[in-house]
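During the no-cost extension, the postdoctoral fellow (Dr. R.K.) reprocessed legacy sequence entries with the updated structure-token encoder. One reprocessed record is reproduced below for audit purposes.
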Amino acid sequence: MDNYIITIARSFGSGGKEIAALLSEKLGIPWYERQILTMASQASGIDESEFVEVDERIHGSYLIKSLTKLPTANVLRPESRAFVSDLNLYNIQAEIIKELSHTQSCIIVGKCADNILRDRPNVLSVFVNAYYDDCIAKIRSRIYVSEERARDMKKRTDKYRTAYYKYYTRGENWKEPLNYDMFLNTSRNSIQNCADIIERAVQLKFGK
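Re-encoded structure tokens follow.
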């Protein structure tokens, strides 16, 4: 298999992004989260603020150039009045993710990537979770907020991620185990151990 994709869905505060960053170093492949929104903006010509404000911009990518020529059946044309609708913006991001799955090995965090790529044989999908109190502690240590604020942030963020996944996957449950190859609990396994487990799974599934 020429390339492979690791998708990581995660509850807020569980350490999914830390695992992605560590895996990126271990495997020598890039990881994407908000960068996909930048790619979608550049590929579509829609102002980036319509997707989300991002800090890191990606310029001059061969991927962006190829995406502007893709025959995307689910993406509306610029002349359409609904071109910047929520659904169309999502579909543009989905096309980015699909193109990534064809062109390079990488890690994709969030964005319903496991569902978008569910029929691809070169995908390993992972869900990362942790005990509630451990998530709260990690949130507080990372952004220095009160316990009350951390609890509110977790509640709102997980509720949003659940609704986002359900809406764009037409009713799928974000935490359904059968949607993924594996579930990992960072309360029982360290971030390092979780990265090692995924690395081993990549070797077993793809022979890498």
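The beta strands are 5-10, 31-32, 106-109, 123-129, 182-185. The first helix runs from residue 16 to 27. The remaining legacy entries will be reprocessed before the final report is submitted.
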